[in-house]
Amino acid sequence: MALRRKVTLNDIAGACGVSRATVSLVLRGSPLVHADTRQRVEDEMRRQGYVYNRAAAGLRRRESSSIALVINDLSNPFFAEFAAGVDEALAAAGYVTLLGSSGESAERQQAVLGTLLEYHPAAIILSPAEVSEASRVARVIGRSTPLLVFNRRLVGDAPTDFAYDFLGLDNRAGARQATEHLLALGHRRIAFFGGHLDSSSCRERRLGYQDAMREAGIEPEPQWTVESAPTRLEAAAQTGALFVRDPAPTAAVCYNDAVALGLMQGLIRRGRHPGHDFAVTGFDDIPEAAVSAPPLTTVGVEPRARGRQAATLALQRVRDPGAAHAPVIVPVRLIERGSTCPPPA
Amino acid sequence: MALRRKVTLNDIAGACGVSRATVSLVLRGSPLVHADTRQRVEDEMRRQGYVYNRAAAGLRRRESSSIALVINDLSNPFFAEFAAGVDEALAAAGYVTLLGSSGESAERQQAVLGTLLEYHPAAIILSPAEVSEASRVARVIGRSTPLLVFNRRLVGDAPTDFAYDFLGLDNRAGARQATEHLLALGHRRIAFFGGHLDSSSCRERRLGYQDAMREAGIEPEPQWTVESAPTRLEAAAQTGALFVRDPAPTAAVCYNDAVALGLMQGLIRRGRHPGHDFAVTGFDDIPEAAVSAPPLTTVGVEPRARGRQAATLALQRVRDPGAAHAPVIVPVRLIERGSTCPPPA
DNA sequence: CTGAAAGCGCTTACAG
DNA sequence: CTGAAAGCGCTTACAG
């Protein structure tokens, strides 16, 4: 099957015996055009299967109707949901999403940003790879495209003339709530499990954990902090690290849900019963959290709503480039389900 | 912070005292340009922070370097992985991914396709909503953009002059393998659980199940087929339907992993032990399948690799629009893990 | 080796 | 109410 040539404004104008300008006015719904002319033009467009060329229009009008979205890990449901939310809100606002993924590699992130910039998006939404330096990101993005960073802080200071928006979660308060919940159940030996401490979100969550512990008069033992990649698989593999020394913890505040679900898996393999003889909390409230066995007590952050919010913030910035750049921190709340229990007697 | 004006070829040409044409040649790495000139131009580009405008170039060259990707459900890890694979391969080939999602709504899919077409992508990759009519899809896409459909067939016949590529899984063979595995373990009363029979992939998988059953001399009872939305939650809720009549099945071939994991959840809630007193198989091998409790015996389809393959096929079509349109069906294979067992004595 | 000119598909003052 | 003209940022023959 041969592909058909694309129909342009010129084709329609020619067929109707009017000028391109008139067709353009019809397209943009101008009241200047005579109703008969409008009708003829619209019929002809339908007949020929005309498709507007937004790139050409954008070029002429010097404006962009795309927004670039760079995700660190699309296979994590948290980020997949976030991306879905971004796309949903952008589409509703008449923008198209240019997708890129970094796979948690700062190198790839640079390359992806460089490529996406060539499409001159109106703004960039970046969920950064674990260790992304502000200076490098600033260098590739330049000073003519607004940037919204989601979830993790960029590392180091950005150049003074490089401002960007930030949308993050109240990680510290969320982890604190989770820890306080475990303390209230009677736990004293509580681990902070999973994540890498060089990521800002992980550090913040650990601070919240430490806040609650110290407020309860407990100094967390170093071996109660176990790092792992923020994935289910890695977390399951690290489960043993919680039990190498006595007295072992009776509960764990996990970096996120993926890690918490992995830990529950790891516990079950070791013959333990999360929610009965060991308490686990997560962070994110991904869809699986509600249906795991047992259902996961976790900190709800509504990733899809965060995606919509990120899109909204980015579009606000497009409309008003001069506004101040105050970071937006989203409050979070603990959702109690079945994976927490008092410590075994 | 005021955004800076974008730098264009003209700015560079002016600053270097050469013409736009020369700068353009430098950009495209032409050997015609004198080494000194090239150096001066490249330095100036770096100095001014020039960013190529691919949309403008594409307009002039009458070619597109974007591909549209429309996903039915980004919150299903299977499709999220697929999308990640598509994006990975497209980026490697120098294309950008225009993302859209239909949320399993055929209406929204039409709207999303319409919008994305205005960016004149070189091709469209569509993972269609559950019931997508070929004629409607054909109408919105027209005859000048190649289409690759993934995973599900479009419903009804397309107009004769509308050809599209198809990448699908060997659903029938996969479900057959799963069923044969259960038969080999000694099961006779085997259910086909989950999915909607008006989706082509579900119908095909059910045929594979029926093939294996009949070959073993067993006529599947109607009540052994239980439909549900292809999600974990819905499947968990439908678990009871398997046990309303005696003799109840001792095993279930599930439509996909999400459904299988939901069924396992539902079984556990009813006091049963999947992998010990009831056998379950899945389809897809999403990441969770390997780490569920018990790990899920399933049919591996490698969604990320399928994404890369879809991108490759779409790009082939872009290069050679006249080639024949033979559907590509990917062979699949059973991965044995812990969720299957012989029937209880 | 480099420049002047035309043109991709659109929009926007400006005439009339 | 409609058309002629200029121009968005680029590329591509064609001269020289």
Can you give a write-up of this model?
With 345 residues, chain A is an alpha/beta fold. Chain A has three domains: 44 residues, 434 Repressor (Amino-terminal Domain) (Orthogonal Bundle); 135 residues, Response regulator (Rossmann fold, 3-Layer(aba) Sandwich); 131 residues, Response regulator (Rossmann fold, 3-Layer(aba) Sandwich), CATH 3.40.50. Chain A has twelve helices and twelve strands. In chain A, strands 2-1-3-4-5-11 form a six-stranded parallel β-sheet, with helices on both faces. Chain A has a four-stranded parallel β-sheet with strand order 7-6-8-9, with helices on both faces. A two-stranded antiparallel sheet of chain A has the order 10-12. In chain A, strand 6, helix 9 and strand 7 form a beta-alpha-beta unit. In chain A, helix 1 crosses helix 2, helix 6 packs parallel to helix 7 and helix 8 runs parallel beside helix 9. The longest helix of chain A has 17 residues. Chain A is elongated, with a radius of gyration of 26 Å. The model of chain A has no long low-confidence stretch (mean pLDDT 93). The interface between A and B is large, with 68 and 69 residues. Chain A binds a DNA duplex (16 and 16 nucleotides) through helix 2 and helix 4.
